[in-house]
Design brief:
The termini are far apart. The chain has helices spanning about 5-10, 20-25, 35-45, 50-70, 90-95, 110-120, 135-140, 140-145, 170-180, 200-210, 220-225; strands at about 75-80, 100-105, 125-130, 155-160, 185-195, 230, 235-240, 260-265. Strands 1, 2, 3, 4, 5, 6, 7 and 8 form an 8-stranded mixed β-sheet that branches. Helix content is about 40%, strand content about 15%.
Length: about 270
């Protein structure tokens, strides 16, 4: 784990776009480089609503975390969390109940640097720099062990990240490894790019060509991540349709259908 500013700065590759920094771009953040902005500009050519899609993903994160707190969850592990922005998981959860504990996990060194600054005075939240594809290492991390009691229910969050795992990286097995480590009463929260239109397939080609990741799976493929768990209403749906706070349009745009999400309970 990078411990000093010099170490994390040397670990940053500003010549290639990063997942965390590209997400920061579409959330109108400032922690990104020209290469990340150029990548997003290419995506805008095929999905002009991509900035709105990021907002929909951030909104469902807030709704989902509030829902999970209402269900009695007080422990969260946010895998592939990205760079800190507005309405982060710990802010939403701890606003509902200050006792909530949150561990963020991301493999981008900038997340560690900015996350530590944000969380310097929050002893119920931690940032772990690690690759979510190694559940054993993450679950054995000192910060995870310090904050999370894996004998009590945990919300396992994979919000906007599983589509960055290729099929041959066994994303289903990775999900199962995390869920096997948490007890009954825990929850799985997933959002994912969906192959819901010709534009989405064009976007997938751009992601794979320029970023190297970005698997737009079908609705049944996304739903399969929840197999073995109790998928809660309304199921796996376009993000604006998941327990909305207000009215939604009768017909959704391409952007509103670009990502699907859902929450399931481990019984």
């Amino acid at each position: 784990m990078a411990e000093t500013p010099d170490e994390w700065k040397s670990a940053i590759d500003s010549t290639r776009p990063s997942i965390a920094r590209a997400y920061d771009v579409v959330l109108n953040g400032k922690d990104n480089f020209e290469v990340d902005r150029a990548f997003v500009a290419e995506i805008v050519k095929v999905v002009p609503e991509i900035y709105d899609v990021a907002t929909y993903n951030r909104q469902i994160l807030g709704r989902g975390v509030r829902f999970l707190v209402e269900q009695g969850i007080r422990q969260f592990i946010d895998l592939g969390s990205g760079l800190p922005t507005v309405e982060n998981t710990h802010q939403v959860a701890q606003r509902a109940d200050p006792a909530c504990k949150v561990v963020y996990v991301d493999n981008d060194p900038m997340v560690l640097a900015h996350g530590r600054a944000l969380l310097a005075e929050n002893d119920r939240t931690a940032v772990v720099t690690s690759d979510l594809r190694d559940p054993q290492a993450i679950l054995g991390d000192a910060a995870v062990k310090r904050l999370l009691d894996l004998d009590r229910p945990v919300a396992v969050m994979l919000v906007g990240v599983l589509h960055h795992l290729h099929d041959d990286e066994n994303p289903r097995g990775i999900v199962e490894a995390y869920m096997d480590a948490v007890p009954a009463g825990s929850y799985l929260f997933v959002t994912h790019f969906c192959a819901s239109s010709p534009d989405s397939r064009d976007a997938e080609k751009k992601f794979l060509a320029l970023l190297g990741t970005g698997r737009f799976r079908t609705e049944p493929e996304i739903t399969a991540f929840f197999d073995g768990f109790e998928l809660l209403e309304p199921g796996v749906v376009p993000l604006p349709l998941w327990r909305p706070d207000g009215p939604v349009p009768a017909e959704l745009t391409v952007g509103q259908r670009l990502m699907y999400g859902g929450i399931a309970r481990k019984n």
